[in-house]
Specification:
CATH superfamily of the largest domain: NAD(P)-binding Rossmann-like Domain
Order of helices and strands: EHEHEHEHEHHEHEHEHEHEHEHEH
Bound molecules: 2-keto-D-gluconic acid
CATH topology of the largest domain: Rossmann fold
Oligomer: single chain
Strand order of the largest sheet: 8-7-6-9-10-11-12
Shape: globular
Distance between the termini: 40 Å
Number of strands: 12
Number of domains: 2
Strand content: 5-15%
CATH class of the largest domain: Alpha Beta
Largest sheet: 7 strands, parallel
Length: 339
């Protein structure tokens, strides 16, 4: 056959799935693109990630892979970076935009699940659930005691939400409607009055929130501006009976300062799902009794993790203009790159 009259098979774009994710979700990609997976769920060092991205048009990431200007320069074929996380502090969005690379995150699908967990962690912290379970499991329970593991109440207490986005609002709703809490919040921009009214939450300054709240829950996105938003000075403002829960990102709380405050009982207890330098956890936090520690699982219910992964695939297929998904990526952070 004359090569010029030969029917050309369109080249399928290549996509890298940077972590092990649900096989049936990956199968949605395999239908349309050449997929390289990471079945052993290895954490690839940056040079390895860059090597594997050669010739790839898209990448499926989580909150862990670093997508920066150096990576973009080394991967000129990349057109879409789609994350299954809502937080995207691991992705340099302006650099992606400058390079014409579409970025998407995964908001909304995890809001209620993450709020459930934030509330549960706050309750476990206030009511000393992990500490008392460790006591029981280690065979120390001999008799009932009048103030045994007496914690603080959640119902009727003052809830202080730092960061009042979708997840913060879902936590406030749980507190006010379900537990009769008084909700105060601090956010860079105040919510519209009608939304505040609907939630029954009052906007206050950060210092007032720290002074007034019985239970502080942190739900702000991580950025240079929110680095160590809660450090020694902020912890010093809190009540000695108060608890602090962080389900946002490591680095928002100064973990060393928090460990000192917990050690010296300057606050009662903390619940932490995220850590500076995770998966490494500050050694002092590991040895303290009055802190509940979980391994970054706030969004981890099976239906939600599946919805997050599927949303990243929807975005990838749309960004690469493939199949029925072709169109606008549903949750693009820089849709302007598509024109
Ligand atoms: C993710 C999260 O589980 O969505 C986020 O921002 O922190 C978590 O829900 C994690 O980032 C892995 O994708």
């Amino acid at each position: 056959m004359n090569p010029s009259s030969e029917r050309r098979t369109p080249i399928r774009p290549g996509v890298l799935v940077a972590r092990a994710v649900f096989p049936d979700v990956v199968a949605r990609l395999v239908e349309h693109v050449d997929v390289e997976t990471n079945d052993n769920d290895e954490i690839w060092p940056q040079p390895e990630l860059i090597r594997r991205l050669q010739g790839k048009a898209g990448v499926f990431v989580t909150g862990g892979e670093k997508i920066d200007a150096a990576l973009l320069a080394a991967c000129p074929g990349l057109r879409a970076v789609c994350s299954m996380a809502v937080g995207y502090n691991n992705i340099d969005v302006p650099a992606c935009t400058a390079a014409g690379v579409l970025v998407s995150n995964a908001p909304d699908v995890l809001t209620e699940t993450t709020a459930d967990f934030g509330f549960a962690l706050m309750m476990a912290t206030a009511r000393r659930i992990s500490e008392s379970e460790r006591f029981l499991r280690s065979g120390q329970w001999r008799h009932w005691g009048v103030d045994m593991f007496a914690g603080s109440d959640v119902h009727g207490a003052t809830l202080g939400v730092l960061g009042m986005g979708r997840i913060g609002q879902a936590i406030a709703r749980r507190g006010v409607l379900g537990f009769g809490m008084k909700a105060i919040y601090h956010n860079r921009s105040r919510l519209p009055e009608a939304v505040e009214h609907g939630l029954g939450a009052r906007h206050v300054g950060k210092e007032e929130l720290l002074r007034e709240a019985d239970h502080v829950v942190i739900v702000v996105p991580y950025s240079a501006a929110s680095h160590h938003l809660v450090g020694a000075a902020e912890l010093a403002l809190m009540k000695p009976t108060a608890t602090l829960t962080n389900i946002a990102r490591g680095g928002i709380v100064d973990d060393a300062a928090l460990a000192r405050a917990l050690q010296e009982r300057r606050i009662a207890a903390a619940g932490l799902d995220v850590f500076e330098g995770e998966p490494v956890v500050h050694p002092d936090l590991l040895s303290l009794p009055n802190v509940v520690l979980t391994p970054h699982i706030a969004s981890s219910s099976l239906p939600t993790r599946r919805a997050m992964a599927n949303l990243a695939v929807d975005n990838l297929l749309a960004a690469l203009r493939i199949g029925q998904q072709a169109g606008r990526p549903p949750t693009a952070l820089n849709p302007e790159v598509l024109g």
